[in-house]
Amino acid sequence: MTEMDICQRCRTNETTVISRKEKFCTSCFTKFIVLKQRKQMMSSDYYRDIFKILYKDKIRSAEEAHIQNLNSRILVPLSLGSSSLVLLDILNKTLDEQLVQHRGITGFRVDVLVCYSKTRDDIEEINSKIAKLKSERYASNKDRITFHVVSLDSFFENCNNELRKIILHNQTFSSMAIDIKNDQDHSYGIDELLKACPNRSTQIDLLTFITRHVVKKFAYQHEFKAILWGHSMTKLADEIISLVVKGRGEQIATSLDTKSFDFIYGGDKFKNLYPLKDVLLAEVDAYCELHGLSQYLVNYETKDTLLVKKKDITGKMKNKNIKLVRNMTINELARKYFDDIEGDYSNVIATVLRTGDKLAEPETQADATTTAASADDKCSLCLGKLHSNASNWLRSIAVIEGFPIANAEEQELYDRWSQSEIGIEMAEYMKLKDDIWTHGEDILLCYGCIITMNGIKMKNVTWPKFNDKELNDTLNEYVLSDAEGEEGEPVSAEL
């Protein structure tokens, strides 16, 4: 082993990873990643009180300290991708260390939430992976790490049966909603929603919100102190760029906020933390490969960009589908850009994230006319804060009225268009819009959701009516039993 092959930190072991122009052995690289995560976990007094072990002191008695340790519960949304799995793995290591150093006592407990789509995901594969994690990888903490599984269709099924149809006006960009009931014979679900979307970007946009809402609703109902999202630095950077492109730039500050309680879900219930925000996705993938986590991944393949010894991919590339740029979502395009520069220009990713962290929420524009956005207004679709009336602004910059038919030729073309598939669909939309405009109520949408709605078929969606009843309607979930691959009885969240 030459000097060129030696780890630059310990100066002893062989180099296995080269990251940020530095050579690491497996042990030093693991320590590097673990310390990055723990730095975020100890970033404030609030988080320190969650993760550290509390003992009797001037503030609390021994019994109070014990109760606080038991009540320090965190929620980890697990997608079974590399980032969330590495996050969970390091939390397991932390629990193991606390058990050894503090004689069987730990400072926190972990609940893992896996969200799945009934039609898009293989629930048997998901259950199998979770069972293996529970029985093999995290057996030492089986009493301190609990796995829950929730269907994303609970977004529609567990909303106190209070649904409404939201429609966007094709000329004024204003929106209205009318209450509807979920038909028991044919319940509205995610499949119907996604079929109305014009492209994958819109589908992923809506699925991302649905997943986020289900996770945060679960955290609210179970009274967790924090949600630990497994977003790497690369993921957060591509999310920042994507939000800007999708017209949701005003949400960047709120989405990255780890200091404030989540104002939408109770206001004082939990905070959101990104423990891997200082770790590149390529570093996360390298950790997965070095520690044998790849066998637990679902719908994700790690990259060996930073590994000295590359993976054997013989035969795999032949069957691998190459995704065309035109078929990529906005997030995937941003991710592709960051993947391309991650090796040589990782500082660009860090700069994007640092810039996002410095952004503040826009001030609410009180001079927006008629239905002006107030400080407490939220978007009826994504629940984001409204800082201005987007429909008023769009009307001020757009030509919103068509020109009348002027001659016989134009009338003939119009008649032919009216009989086409698009014309018939437009007639159905106009009938639905007129009905809702007669019997519905005004609602507000943010600019990003107006753009999303404008592309959806017939410019309408069926959506839960967000209120306290919906927030407290218990999500149906189940936990895996100790028997591998078996499902336990559905359990309800105690409020």
Automatic annotation (TrEMBL):
<dbReference type="GO" id="GO:0001403">
    <property type="term" value="P:invasive growth in response to glucose limitation"/>
</dbReference>
<dbReference type="GO" id="GO:0007124">
    <property type="term" value="P:pseudohyphal growth"/>
</dbReference>
<comment type="function">
    <text>Plays a central role in 2-thiolation of mcm(5)S(2)U at tRNA wobble positions of tRNA(Lys), tRNA(Glu) and tRNA(Gln). May act by forming a heterodimer with NCS6 that ligates sulfur from thiocarboxylated URM1 onto the uridine of tRNAs at wobble position. Prior mcm(5) tRNA modification by the elongator complex is required for 2-thiolation. May also be involved in protein urmylation.</text>
</comment>
<dbReference type="GO" id="GO:0005829">
    <property type="term" value="C:cytosol"/>
</dbReference>
<dbReference type="GO" id="GO:0032447">
    <property type="term" value="P:protein urmylation"/>
</dbReference>
<dbReference type="GO" id="GO:0002143">
    <property type="term" value="P:tRNA wobble position uridine thiolation"/>
</dbReference>
<keyword id="KW-0963">Cytoplasm</keyword>
<dbReference type="InterPro" id="IPR019407">
    <property type="entry name" value="CTU2"/>
</dbReference>
<comment type="similarity">
    <text>Belongs to the CTU2/NCS2 family.</text>
</comment>
<dbReference type="Pfam" id="PF10288">
    <property type="entry name" value="CTU2"/>
</dbReference>
<dbReference type="GO" id="GO:0016783">
    <property type="term" value="F:sulfurtransferase activity"/>
</dbReference>
<comment type="pathway">
    <text>tRNA modification; 5-methoxycarbonylmethyl-2-thiouridine-tRNA biosynthesis.</text>
</comment>
<keyword id="KW-0819">tRNA processing</keyword>
<protein>
    <recommendedName>
        <fullName>Cytoplasmic tRNA 2-thiolation protein 2</fullName>
    </recommendedName>
</protein>
<dbReference type="GO" id="GO:0016779">
    <property type="term" value="F:nucleotidyltransferase activity"/>
</dbReference>
<dbReference type="GO" id="GO:0000049">
    <property type="term" value="F:tRNA binding"/>
</dbReference>
<dbReference type="InterPro" id="IPR014729">
    <property type="entry name" value="Rossmann-like_a/b/a_fold"/>
</dbReference>
